[in-house]
Write a structure and sequence with these properties.
single chain, alpha/beta, Peroxisomal Thiolase, Chain A, domain 1, five-stranded mixed sheet, four-stranded mixed sheet, globular, binds acetyl coenzyme *A
């Protein structure tokens, strides 16, 4: 089996910021409620004309540049998203066309907030068994397109963004040394995208309402804490390590209180955990990709560190990887 490593990272965040104060003007909420319950101060909003593929392309180009790999040399492109431009073509094919990655095959993966790690682990299999030499994995979400802006229980939580990585032969650095993927379909009803059958027309535009996210936050919260803690323990054990060997944990950024509860359950110091939810909210699959990018940029992750990436999302699906940086 060949070793696989992360050769380069990229990210893209839309310009427009939506602060908690802005949300106070849209729904009955407050900066204090949002910040104390979630840790979020602001999030980014993609422009009206900006599609998920546009975010994906920008993150991809930066990752390719950092990996010093040309698009035409790519073998595989995987995009992980739950907010694609449309049902088809896949966002991965749109990216392939835009960056002229003529040789690459391309497909999307849907694993909600766990998408990036599902994408990385899937791509890793192709590289490990020698079918492909390199892969571009992108997590991109314009999830605010799926939000009911009248629903204060969900609209305060989410933001748009994209992150990407190029995977290739690992020569020791940035090697992915363990993987864990898990699904609990029995909890799928706790978070889904629905069209409101009872009130199908939008009050203002009189047009058919777009499908939007509904969720049972309290129930999700408890399962998220248990699933993420379990995922960390399994991935660390599979890597042949102990929790004490871990230098940095990069978790999915759904709620700062979920992250604190996971840290408490695992008896991990919170300063070992990278958090940027205050700036971006929950960007679904893109959260962990952007967090990894920033943790490296801010030197919270350094050469030789053992890093755990861990996530959970609608499905429900959870995942973790250990990377030796
Ligand atoms: N502003 C003000 N008040 C609010 C808001 C708001 N934005 N939202 C809810 N409230 C009110 C509720 O109506 C409720 O009022 P009541 O007591 O009068 O009924 C009160 O605040 C408490 O509401 P809870 O739902 O009990 O609040 P909780 O402490 O559970 O926090 C939250 C809610 C933040 C959603 C939390 O449960 C959570 O983060 N859950 C996990 C959700 C999650 O991670 N989802 C993403 C899944 S990942 C993926 O795949 C995309």
């Amino acid at each position: 089996m060949k070793n696989v490593g992360i050769l380069g990272l990229g990210h893209y965040l839309p310009q427009r910021r939506l602060t908690n104060a802005d949300l106070e003007k849209i729904v009955d909420t407050s900066d204090d409620w949002i910040f104390t319950r979630t840790g979020i101060r602001e999030r980014r909003l993609a422009g009206k004309e900006e599609k998920t593929s546009d975010l994906a392309i920008k993150a991809a180009l930066e990752a390719l540049k950092n990996a010093q790999i040309k698009a035409e040399d790519l073998d595989l492109i995987i995009v992980t998203t739950i907010s694609p431009d449309s049902n088809f073509p896949s966002v991965a094919c749109l990216v392939q066309k835009a960056i002229h990655a003529k040789k690459a095959t391309a497909f999307d993966i849907s694993a909600a907030c766990s998408g990036f790690l599902f994408g990385v682990t899937t791509a890793k299999q192709f590289l490990q068994n020698g079918m492909y030499k390199n892969a571009l994995v992108i997590a991109a979400e314009k999830i605010t397109n799926l939000i009911d802006w009248n629903d204060r229980t969900t609209c305060v939580l989410f933001g748009d963004g994209a992150g990407a990585c190029v995977l290739g032969p690992g020569n020791g650095d940035h090697a992915i040394i363990s993987d864990y993927l898990h699904a609990q379909g029995q909890f799928g009803g706790l978070m889904s995208v629905q069209a409101d059958e009872g009130e199908p027309l939008d009050k203002e535009s009189n047009m058919l309402r777009k499908p939007y996210v509904v969720m049972q936050g309290k129930e999700l919260f408890k399962i998220a804490v248990n699933s993420m803690a379990e995922a960390v323990e399994i991935a660390v054990e599979k890597a042949g390590l102990k929790l004490a060997d871990i230098d940095c944990v990069v978790p999915h950024q759904a709620n700062d209180r979920i992250i604190s509860a996971v840290a408490k359950k695992l008896n991990l110091a919170k300063d070992k955990i990278f958090i940027n939810i205050d700036k971006y909210g929950n960007m679904s699959a893109a959260s962990i990709a952007v967090a990894l990018y920033e943790a490296v940029e801010q030197k919270r992750i350094q050469k030789g560190h053992h890093v755990v990436l861990v996530t959970f999302g609608a499905g429900l699906v959870s995942a973790a990887n250990v990377v030796r940086w």
